[in-house]
Write a structure and sequence with these properties.
53% strand; mainly beta; twelve-stranded mixed sheet; single chain
Length: 207
């Protein structure tokens, strides 16, 4: 009976931890919006849906300015983040292609995305780039939890937005500029804890 009780307690604690983890993940927020003001480390942003958000920037926050790039800047094994939508035949057409600077933190995955309806995000390393009938066909390898790496083929057309980032400072966070935060935990007071942020420099981050 003692062993059974101990097992029950362990199972209960594990379940509680799992639920807490899910709840914590649910509190993480993706931010797309326009800067209203910066006061010390608190950045006020009007989100694309009209809500006012308070972003608390960490002292060591990573600020990146979004600048224009070209397909020629994408080298073999470069890390890329591609937002795409499927064509009628199921082929993924790239709406935006972001080149991740070498040495920067990078999360490799493929999943549904919220930039626009029926969109996907593919984060991975470029394997091949081949000319196609209506654009360049990129093969991108990405990580899958608990499985071998997988690949997706995506078409980059002349309409695809291509960009990268350069290091920035808090001086770049000016009212009226667009910003993007991939994943910010919500603090008890409702503000967001921000460790990394992208800000419009030559072009806006994905909105």
């Amino acid at each position: 009976m003692r062993i059974t009780s101990q097992a029950f307690v362990v199972a209960t604690l594990a379940a509680t931890f799992a639920l807490s983890s899910v709840a914590a993940q649910a509190q993480n927020v993706r931010v797309r919006g326009t800067i209203e003001k910066l006061d010390g480390n608190t950045l006020t942003v009007k989100s694309r849906d009209g809500a006012e958000l308070k972003l608390v920037l960490k002292d060591n926050v990573r600020i990146a300015g979004v600048v224009k790039a070209a397909l020629a800047d994408v080298k073999p094994e470069s890390n890329v983040a591609i937002t795409s939508r499927p064509r009628a035949d199921g082929t993924l057409e790239a709406f935006e292609l972001r080149i991740a600077p070498a040495g920067q933190p990078f999360n490799s995955f493929h999943s549904e995305w919220d930039l626009m309806p029926n969109s996907f995000m593919t984060n991975g390393s470029l394997q091949t780039s081949i000319s196609g009938v209506d654009g360049q066909v990129l093969t991108v390898k990405y990580k899958v939890v608990g499985k071998p790496d997988e690949e997706k083929k995506l078409i980059v057309t002349p309409k695809t937005i291509i960009a990268t980032t350069v290091p920035g400072t808090k001086a770049d966070l000016k009212p009226g500029l667009k910003v993007f935060v991939a994943n910010a935990p919500k603090l008890p007071d409702g503000s967001l804890d921000v460790a990394a942020i992208q800000v419009e420099k030559e072009i806006p981050p994905p909105q």
